[in-house]
């Protein structure tokens, strides 16, 4: 199958997880249950979409997974891998490791407030152009 040899950890919206699981398994991938740090030793790929997760959903530690040699990618890579010949470079689909670092860091205040401030400044600029 197209995904033979892949050992995958999924961290996506619950409503889509079953579909991704079926697709990957039908292509020969083994989909691992959960996304604990202990699974990183076994996994070859992590597919995560943090933007679609609810605030209380657990998130995979991308920085830790990447440090253990796991390919941490956006789920869009799965379809593009099947459709494009040759398959697209993984670099275009990499997950940012700093996002999971912010999720797991006890000092959340600084990183997130800067992010919000930057987004707020951008939206103010956009509004001023419109008016």
From TrEMBL:
Signal sequence region: none
Gene3D superfamilies xref list: BRCT domain (3.40.50.10190)
Domain spans labelled BRCT: 1-95
Classification via InterPro entries: BRCT_dom, BRCT_dom_sf, TopB1_SLF1_BRCT, TopBP1_BRCT_8
Localization terms from the record: Cytoplasm, Cytoskeleton, Microtubule organizing center, Centrosome; Nucleus
Pfam families on file: BRCT_TopB1_SLF1 (PF23294)
A Gene Ontology biological process term: mitotic DNA replication checkpoint signaling
Region (Disordered): 107-131
GO cellular component, one term: centrosome
Predominant location category: cytoplasm
Keywords: Cytoplasm, Cytoskeleton, DNA damage, DNA repair, Nucleus, Repeat
Protein name per UniProt: TOPB1 protein
Gene: Topbp1
